[in-house]
Protein: DUF4916 domain-containing protein
Organism: Nocardioides zeae
Amino acid sequence: MTLFGAHEPEREPNPEVFGVDAQASPGWLSQEGLAETRGRVPILYVEAVPVRVDHLGQVEKVGLLLRGSMDGRMSRSFVSGRVLLGETVRRALLRNLEKDLGPAAFPRIPASPVPFTVAEYLPLPGVTPLHDPRQHAVSLVYVVSVTGDCQPRQDALELTWLTPAEASAPEVLADMEGGRGVLLTQALAHLNALG
Amino acid sequence: MTLFGAHEPEREPNPEVFGVDAQASPGWLSQEGLAETRGRVPILYVEAVPVRVDHLGQVEKVGLLLRGSMDGRMSRSFVSGRVLLGETVRRALLRNLEKDLGPAAFPRIPASPVPFTVAEYLPLPGVTPLHDPRQHAVSLVYVVSVTGDCQPRQDALELTWLTPAEASAPEVLADMEGGRGVLLTQALAHLNALG
Amino acid sequence: MTLFGAHEPEREPNPEVFGVDAQASPGWLSQEGLAETRGRVPILYVEAVPVRVDHLGQVEKVGLLLRGSMDGRMSRSFVSGRVLLGETVRRALLRNLEKDLGPAAFPRIPASPVPFTVAEYLPLPGVTPLHDPRQHAVSLVYVVSVTGDCQPRQDALELTWLTPAEASAPEVLADMEGGRGVLLTQALAHLNALG
Amino acid sequence: MTLFGAHEPEREPNPEVFGVDAQASPGWLSQEGLAETRGRVPILYVEAVPVRVDHLGQVEKVGLLLRGSMDGRMSRSFVSGRVLLGETVRRALLRNLEKDLGPAAFPRIPASPVPFTVAEYLPLPGVTPLHDPRQHAVSLVYVVSVTGDCQPRQDALELTWLTPAEASAPEVLADMEGGRGVLLTQALAHLNALG
């Protein structure tokens, strides 16, 4: 457990929650299989920055998940999760949005498959702004407008909606897990919502 | 009228339709003012390709407007219109979507201001795939998901919803006004909806 | 002159510099024609953020132009200029890069016409982060790698090459003309060069 | 060999060619390790569409690699290869460009990490336009301008430079390996080089 990061057990999706028969679904890996795979190839993720937009498409709020880690620190993050074997990027996005925001969030998956950025996490901190102690991960990051009711699930304690100005505050950016403050600024830049 | 293209009078938005006081709104131009301006600078447009998407964001249908021109030919086009003086690109997009699709179309203006392509129309046919006999126009082109009821207005006779495969048919692409078959293919390419 | 902003005379390209016969080129406007047009439609611009990249495409330096204004203040800006009547966006980009960086800059005009952002300048300060006292301008903004020798021309006093970290400093961002600090952050975000 | 597709042995990069000590480089996998991993997670690839551009950035030629497969058919493809463990996307792009085009191709790796599309290959043909009999692969696809001399290496027999019009011909698109005709059209659409 310590080997793969504090909240790994919570982050690897739990098949039962989604009514999936883990034995029959090759996408779900045992902890051992996942660990071995992480020693071989970069792992593909999707991440979503949830937003509320007005009738002109302008972002009004950005949603950040609050999670506790084993060392007692709290950190903020986005919706994120692995792309499973045989799963399309769109399905992975939808599944992880429902996993983290609940079944009534009604996310609007983007019509284009092009992410606003590609985030690369290396296991060693300091090499790049982003890191993930568990693995080399490459993440396709999207902005996803959600219109429904969000109920954080699994290991997320809370979903906080911040205005773009609040989300740009240095203390919020510094609080983001694994260096994701950079990603949050990139998301706001992409939306013309800086400053 | 013949000078600036067959359906110019219908295409320059009519202030009364939108409850605007034309005298007080510097954005609205007289035919003379518009003609003179077209002799001086490229004119900025926005265009929108209306789409219906499923819960995974995949495009199911593309909406094409059918318009008649003075020479009796029918042609297909997108939602389009000028960006007026003092008007933001987002407002221009929303106004032109409501102008062409009616007030109940409920378009979802994109959260990012980046168009999927920049279309350049020159008055001379054949220089580029796109042309506009009235003017040099530069158009920011967006894909816009619409969820409501579309009622074509002004000079549009009909809105036809086609599947991506139907929209890719050579006869549909050839029918597009001003060479916009190229833009339609670009929109489908951007959405991973070719083939 | 005061009517259209302090450095307007320097910024409207001078036909003679480029060996153009102004009488025969409809793209060049008299000050009166330009002023009248600015009262009628938004004016289309291109802007370029010049960068030096390494062999992996990573940005090493960002080029900022230093200009003096009539009130004695200095401010920093990007390469920018109008798209002239009949001129393509690509030609406008190249012409303005040569105007501001000299003929030996060897810019690599992007292969795709999609800008990394669309910047909207309104004449009133404070409505949006960006403003231009002279006009309502809409600008297609590109990152352009330059490989040659840059010799600032016209009204630019100096071209300064800054690392991404230096360019992100609050005092540099605050110094940018017309609120372009926001655009500079957007450019760095687009290049994964924040932080 | 038949298990992993006809040209798998040639496509998995050969460490010796690049002066890499395979034992010391965790990124290189044995055929067994790769096969096992392909049964567990989607594999991350990069692909590059090589282009020649003119001084305005307009694409003049698109480079297609010709490869023979074991059943005697020839097919066309792009530069492509896995992202190795611990390798950044930029380095993977450069390494695979050098692998397929030789050391003197002088590719210009894009300054932005955002691909023009994300291609998803599933092992079953017909589910999506793209397929790869060996695996579930997710590929970040870039357009890369190359300025030097290209010498196809490894299993590529030839590099053919086609104009955008030639590359759009139905017989060329149909010849592309694994359904990549769709990707080629998407690349041309992204570059405003259709029609």
